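This part of the workshop introduces the protein records we will be handling. Getting from the letters to the tokens is the skill we practise here. The record below serves as our worked example for the rest of this section.

…
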Amino acid sequence: MHRSMLQQLMVLYKDPTLDMRKSPDVSFTGKIAADVGGPTKEFFHTAIEALLKMDPFYRMQLFTGELGHCVPICNMDALSSGCCLMVGKLLARSFLHGGTGLIGLAPAVVKYLTSGSVDEAKDVVTTADIPDVDIQ
């Protein structure tokens, strides 16, 4: 059975024994490679990229909007299932082990995440950050 990326991430990051500091040893089914960094970076890139797409199993999307203006979706299912916590853990672990960040977020979201200030974030909001074209 093939699991969606979100399913795999939820299993991995809900494991209470996972040591986030430990470097992952990544291997891909059907590919032979020693993980000296490349497979780990590919895993984090693929996993983070999947966050911006509709998950085929859960039929849930965690972010919406155009690349460069993506915003998190307010989704109670994602919040109650632990998806939001999983995203934070994934991004933290990616950062710790040389992977990518979540590329494509709206500048206002980045400003809020880095400053914690709604006032600073509101100063960089543009209409392009509104995913619904009818509301734009």
Notes: The beta strands are 63-64, 71-72. Residues 5-105 form one domain. The longest helix spans residues 83-96.
